[in-house]
Amino acid sequence: MHYALFISTAVAYALSFALYLIFLNTGKVLTGRLGTLLLAVGLVTHYFALLERSRGLHTVPYHDLYGSMSLFGWLLALTYLGLELYHRQRSVGALVLPFILVFFVAAHLAPADRLSPPEAHGPSFALHVALSILAYSAFALSFVLSLVFLGEERLLRDHKLGDVVWRLPPLELLERMSRSSVLVGLVSITIGTALGFLWVDRLSSRYSFYDPKYAITLLVLLLYAAYFWLARTTAWRGARASKLCVFNFVIVFLSFTVVNFYLSHSHRYF
Amino acid sequence: MEIVLVGLNHRTAPVEVRERLSFTLDQARRASDELRSKGILAETLVLSTCNRSEVYGVPPETSHECASGLSSFLSEFHSVRMDLLNGSLYHHYDREAVRHLFRVAAGLDSMMLGEAEILGQVRDAYRVAHEQGATGPVLNRLFQGALEVGKRVRSETELGTRPMSVASAGVKLAERIFGKLNERSALVLGAGTISEQVIAQLRDRGIARLYVMNRSRDRADGLAKQFGGEVVSWGEWERALPMPDVIVSSVAAEEVVLRREIVEQAMEERANRALFFMDLGLPRNIDSAVGKLYNVYLYNVDDLTEIVAQNRHARENEIPKADGIVEEHVGKFLSWQASVELVGLIHELRTRMREQRAQFIRARVESIKHLTDADRVQIEKLMDEMLEGLVLEPAQRLRGEKDVRRKIHNVEALRDLFLSNREKS
Q1: Is there a single domain that holds both residue B285 and residue B374?
Q2: How far is CA A227 from the centre of its chain?
Q3: Would the pTM of this model clear 0.90, i.e. be above it?
């Protein structure tokens, strides 16, 4: 059953990616809609794959690298779908789906961990983790949108339109989508971090209070808040803000990888 | 049930001839009425645009004979000597007429390849003829097919997606930056023909506010009044530049009209919101250094002409795909046409068989004396059943199996084979 869910999710995401790609090339509305539909199908099967695995192992999805990466992919897909429906723009789908697919498949290729019973549990902890991963996925989305913005802006300024510029979303829409995504990430990371601190406060007898993850999370929060504010100012609006957004995601990536693996003692996989 | 088309277009006739043969709405209605009342056509539709005048019809008899009558009618209707039209008029019949109309609706026969307007013009011509009662089952089906072809070609190919004029390319580029223009404003410098074309495009794309600036106030007033804009006095840069998102310049000036410093100052005042310039002046009206400013996009006439050339090439690459759609629908229409004709043929065949059955009974059965009336009724009933069986199966196959319809290319030959001796006998 688990294998069947994996296959159906991977196929749904891969087909959705192919359809989004065709939509980007041809502009056929029906193809784009089918791409969205298959993404939604992938989201549902992906959810059940996560659920089934968690039940089977009697643990939360984010307890190991697999679950953490897979949940990240799922939340990235969910955030993208929300943005697509809100802004009625699906041209970016072809550029976001590869990330979703990579995280989903890479989760399955990740080495199997020996699972010990989770040390941390409870609804506030679960919410802390889910919101943090949601924030990371929203930031990843804004990173992709900013890259698309920078590429399209460069092509427009250099008068090298080619075929693809006519299919990409307008620059100002890309900016709005990126800001919406960052807003989702900011709200999530703020609430998620607050819940994390509350939870740590309760268990302070068992853990040392300081973890390098706290510092980098606060840095990420500040950087994205700065982006959100600067993106509307005279000096930064446009390409500069998008470059800042790309830079911010580099910090997120470091937080998710280097800090988690080598520096943090309580944030192994999220 | 044949189809005939007589017409001329931008390829076959110069504008002097085209304008003499064009139809107003009233003329189109009147021509349709006359063609039907004179018995030249049973169904008729007039399609008249700035680049073509065409009459589509279904003649009561054979189309090949009807075409010359139709040409003469056009000559008389517009009072144009026939020798003037001889080299310009084209005649198409059946498959060729169908293919021609479908290519027209697809924009493949237009002066500007893939233009969108022609589909609306075909739709309007059909609506007018249909409301007038000038169309019948054949032209209804034909024009519904043409509209479907037009829609499919536009949604499934890129034939109509890319702008093909400098003005439309500029406006579409502005949309690449701002998205829909219905909350945006534009400033147009100059009030000549090019400015007018760009303003028409901007209005077409729903620009919210329009400002016109020209050295001659009168011409600016005229243009602003025509398109619902506002006039800004020439040289009031501090007031004019911070407002718009799109600036179009087409001014006859020997020197640069907008220098970098002026735009730089305006960008500060507008908090660096993106600004798109279309410089359509020759010599250029806008300092090329303006294009280096942050969040400024500057396109001159050469840049836009190059985009148009790229787009034309891209559209031409779509022709085979569009032709494929046209051919698919030509096949569908001809298959439908054959099925209708075959159903008619079978109906005639059935009538003929019944008549022969009646003759047979009169000649043979009634002379047999020992048969009672009940026997005769029984024999008639059995013969009817046998004849129905002979006709029913092929009729059902014709309705149900497309392949059978496709295989029958010449319904007239079948008609000759089964029904031609009717007149002789």
Answers
A1: no
A2: 17
A3: no
